[in-house]
Design goal:
By secondary structure, the protein is an alpha+beta fold. It has twelve helices and six strands. A hairpin with a 5-residue loop joins strand 3 and strand 4.
Length: 373
């Protein structure tokens, strides 16, 4: 078994672990700081919406153009009077995107580009997007996101409980805010691919969160019938038992996305891949972080505010104080569940090592003496 596999087994059985719940205020503070930075980025720089959302035109030149990207941007801005984005494609052609222009002006811009680039105007392909269609796409994207969030909250409230649904909802808002904030800070264009990436990473974040919640639900069944563990301690155990699984799935998912973002978008210059790959990369990392450091600690905070969980915590602490006063050792972690070896309060301490069984009073009666055969 590999070292990582051994570590995962020890985490699952509670032999080792990190106290995520105890240090939750640190993670809350980090998340608040990152979220504030993302909000400031959105407020100051804003999102760079693509032409699919605000209307405009995309012109594609013939292959193997000699004009540079910066020179073509200047030609396009002079011809249209608007900012232009130019990308060089793999076959040497240029993709010129001009947002916010009237589609009726496209022929004039096309002729101006053909003259400056010294190519036939008929060889420049033009794709037009009207502003009304762009508004419709934007509205449908927001509607789809809102419906997705409502359905998620309803499902989690039914499958688990409302506290877990609320914690998962906050974690999703956390992931969306960070991803969109980084989009604003980096200046990448928001396209339908970006929306697809956002919905994808939200689903992934929920998957990771539900795995931890399922473990937590199973381990906290009949929690008030014992006096060994508090809710927060069992929540911490649930995180640790699924930690290696979360890390493995996140790393495996991030590797191909990193290839799209850094190799496809950076080395090969395939700028259109950046739209979806950046949202996936940031969102996957944020989703894994929120599942471990945000969602489950929030559930623990909400649950431990309940009267019955407060009473349980008092009983657990009182029992430990009583044991400490008697000089008894601290209770060890349980391998097969939080209460698997939980004993009654008045149970005698377990005997470790070989035990000498007392001779039975009836042993040997009715048997002849001498050597057994």
């Amino acid at each position: 078994m590999s070292k990582l596999g051994k570590l995962g087994a020890r985490l699952h059985h509670g032999e080792v672990g990190y106290d995520f719940i105890k240090n939750r205020k640190i993670w809350y503070g980090i998340s608040i700081l990152i979220t504030i930075t993302a909000i400031v980025g959105l407020a100051v720089r804003g999102l760079h919406m693509g032409i699919e959302f605000q209307g405009g035109a995309v012109f594609t030149t013939p292959k193997n153009m000699s004009a540079s990207v910066s020179q073509t941007e200047t030609y396009a801005e002079e011809a249209s009077g608007h900012d232009a984005i130019v990308q060089k494609l793999g076959d040497g052609s240029l993709r010129i995107q001009i947002a916010g222009i009237d589609t009726g002006k496209s022929d004039e811009i096309k002729d101006g580009l053909a003259k400056d680039l010294k190519v036939d105007a008929e060889k420049i392909n033009a794709d037009l997007v009207g502003p009304s269609w762009g508004d419709q796409i934007a509205n449908k994207a927001w509607q789809g996101l809102a419906i997705f969030m409502v359905l998620v909250v309803i499902y989690l409230a039914i499958a688990f409980e409302w506290r877990m649904a609320l914690a998962a909802f906050i974690a999703l808002i956390h992931d969306i805010t960070i991803t969109t904030g980084i989009y604003a800070l980096v200046g990448f264009e928001v396209t339908p691919g970006t929306v697809i990436g956002l919905l994808t990473i939200l689903g992934y974040s929920l998957y990771d969160t539900v795995v931890v919640f399922d473990s937590l639900k199973e381990q906290t069944k009949d929690i008030t019938k014992q006096t060994r563990w508090t809710y927060g301690e069992i929540a911490n155990r649930s995180i640790n038992s699924t930690l290696v699984r979360s890390i493995n799935t996140t790393v495996v998912a991030l590797l191909p996305v990193a290839g799209l973002l850094f190799i496809g978008g950076g080395v090969l210059g395939a700028g259109m891949l950046n739209d979806i790959s950046l949202s996936l990369f940031v969102g996957l990392a944020a989703g894994a972080y929120s599942s471990i450091f945000i969602a489950t600690p929030l559930v623990a905070d909400l649950k431990e505010a309940e009267p019955q969980m407060k009473a349980l915590k008092k009983r657990v602490l009182a029992k430990r104080a009583q044991a400490a006063a008697k000089g008894e050792p601290a209770e060890a972690a349980v391998a097969d569940g939080p209460y698997a070896d939980d004993e009654p309060e008045d149970a005698a301490p377990a005997v470790v090592g070989p035990r000498n069984q007392p001779a039975s009073r009836t042993r040997g009666r009715g048997r002849p003496s001498g050597k057994r055969r």
